[in-house]
């Protein structure tokens, strides 16, 4: 009993000593030893206000812990540490259990005095250490533990850096962290919640759960109003720009970490925003962003995928500058010495890695862009840029973009050095699909729309404008070769002006299609088909005063190829255009419609131009000569210009021409001359024929044969052979015109003859032969039943009695058959075929009037001397055989020409004869013709006046008035 009592007292004494030492002795010793050991190890001075330990409940509390530097400034501080142990119960289950850990009022004062040197890292005093090799054959398993609750309350971390000229300070304050069920016992899933404030503006919240073995963590990070500048200011030496203090980031990020098998990390965002971002460099604003709003972002380390959904960049402004130091955006980050080595090592380490997949879904951007090139004195300004893409996929160097659209409001480019201005008001560019594989680019279904495009080269005095440009591409491929298909280009109100060359071109509507365009590695170009359709074009050349208008132009070029200097074209088709050509000086106008031109197999290369065959079908061409008001000095100037052009052409090396046969079918030619008192117009229709190959070799020749209908009932045929190099070397052309209505030539007869034509038919057989510049021409002119009309006043008309001339020239069938031969040397500068023919015609008419017996005698094979007088010997008046020969020939003429009469006067030689014999001679002639030759009395006219100079009686030819 006594032993039991002693044992009880002993146990109670031990318990009392345990409690007493636990409450008083242990805290005292612990405080002293902790301070002593820390002071020996650390360079700081340790302070502990109080340590409290409850040996019954195993609660530990430390208050007022701090580490002070030499200036008595607190480096590390802890207001209170409370630990609630649950060892007894946990030992039974072979694990270490702590119910609660409360750390309140932690304070860390982190100071960076030099680059990468922090005060907390150098708290431990330097000591000599001995390396020991520890061979651990078996890895012992640590005892499991469990902390039911850990709380960090009112924690503050103050970070100060003195590495820059200006002190940098970052404060993490009001840190509150709670974690439940943290430990390895039963591998509980711990839940945790962290909140703190970064400086004065940023709130950070982290909530989630984690496991220790294997390490698994998940949760959500919420960052509100993170000031970007507060982070970047940590090391300003890295950046070559200034950021505004208002720029901030808002982020809600979900994370999931799993190390069960490998290290797997998955991140996805609910909110990611960058707001009010402004960048300055050298006191100039270079970039501005109102808002970057990313609705969803995910990072999948296991599958190596990055996904971005609904990315919106609002009100982005970029001011790019190029000067002596380069482009401003290339030096935003200051390059470190070892940066290139790091990049190279990174590239090497990533060589065998699986490629990442990066996806962008629904990306939108609106921006403004300025580019100032101070080196080349140029500027580019693009306003209201809008970029949209429905999907972007990136795998390694493969990029796929779907539903891309770029739109701009105003674009201006100004090159002051080269005096070049380019601008447009609206641009809209869309691509259905873009594939980029390394350096290979493929684009499908692209459209480009541009409004009010202006291109002006002030130096060259060239200006191009168009109200709208509309370009469509079904496919575009860029690699070693450039290929595109089904290009459709439409231009509205296109204007091209070249003031240096005094030419202009304009088109209200231009439409162009290009199929299968290819630019290969050798810079060869090929196109399967190019088509200009439904296009109206106006071309004006003030140097040559030509104004050319085309309407509804349809031009198709097939199988075009350009290799080195050689151009080949399979076929050129020009269909149904309306072409108007006007010479502003001469007022010459040429109109063409219903034109179908077919050129086959065209080849153009060095010193060679060849067309295999040309077909011209159904053209209707009108040539109109307006009233010529061109001044003499203008004509001389044009002659000088022409001589200068001819000299330039002569100086050029001749190109071999080989133009295959030209076939003409159903051509209509209208000719109108308004230079005449009465406008002239004629039509040659159904022109059909061919011209053989035209070559410019020395001895080459070309044959031609063309047939047509003149006006309603006339026929035309042109045949011959020419030397295409120079018609002066060889020309043998025959032109036949039959059954041509003379009435249509009234405008010309009115001007040059002063008379209209009532009726008549014309036949021409014109043959022109030129050999070695010597011309021999035969002009056979047959006029049937010509009837003149009214007189017309004309300053150019010849003053001749045309009625008499026509009567003299016509035979019994009222036909005038004229032959007007022409000869001469075409090299003579004063030689003119038209002038010579006209002169021969006038001479013929004049001769008919002034020497009618010569003309009319030639019609009956009589000489003029045989019929122009009746000869008598002195003092004779009887009609002898001598007089009969002359009078019989006169009778033949009068019987054939009932519209003519012979007039004569009595005549005698007053020196040797008496007047009586003169009358007798005249009466005998009258009697012989009327009575013996049965000549109408009207055709024999005896004049009253008596001639006294000769015994011969001279005869005169007169027209009988109807």
Automatic annotation (TrEMBL):
Pfam families: DUF748. It comes from the Bacteria. Keywords: Membrane, Transmembrane, Transmembrane helix. The keyword Transmembrane helix applies. The chain crosses the membrane at residues 9-30. One of its GO terms (cellular component) is plasma membrane. This is Uncharacterized protein. It comes from Aliarcobacter cryaerophilus.
